[in-house]
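I have been asked to look over a protein record a colleague put together. Thanks in advance; the entry in question is below.
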Amino acid sequence: MTVNLLVTCGDSFGCGSGLPDEDAFEKSYAGLTAKDIGVPQKVLARPGCCNYIIYLQIKWAVENLTQANKPFVLITMTNAARTSWYKPFQNKRSGVSPTIEHLNYQDYPPYDTHTNRPFRRPIPVTTDNSLQSETLSNLDTFLDQDPGFVAWIQFSHEPQTRIKVLRDWVADFFNFEIKNDYDNGILAQGHLLLKKHNIPHLFMGWQPQFGDLLPEENYVAVDWGYWSNNYPDNRGTGHCDYRGHDLVYKEIIKKVKAQVND
């Protein structure tokens, strides 16, 4: 199947977090894959986002990138302990579906103002930045930090009362196994959407239950915890270095090429 674009969906690993800013997209596993199959890369990934947002990235790609392109969609999944919500007073009216055209990209590297300007990446879509998506464990870190220390610009728009409500909900009601089943369901919906439109794609992550739902050609088991622990980046971000990305690229490239050359 002929393709002329690699679309990268996912979280921080899809953005090449941990690599030097100048190489984050180009030397990531996805950038190496795009180079190998000889096509440009379009990154929709954003650090810290949940699997629902990753599904919205897939949906946006199908709706907006297939008219003028023949894409291959490469999806890295994330941990289920993440969620999404709208910023204060920015809920959409009834009937308006969430989209990555609402997603807050501007507060996250490599799109944010804290990334060195020469290497800051343009936000991939036109967005009002009203939709937040975060790792739930970061709620504790934010609330427990020194009030004079501004480390979480992503939460600066949130009254602490709202964050405390969310943290209390997590403590009292959140169940990882239930949420993981929800995440597998929404990602399976992304797979069906791609299949319906005959778009070649590959999901990657450590989700054995999800892998059991998909054809073998569309899933590869990639444990980012393993690669990050064994090939840690030198920036201390909890991601992997050049070698780790290169090894992951080598893990996935056969399944990519099997669909591209089909």
Observations:
- The chain has a mean pLDDT of 93.
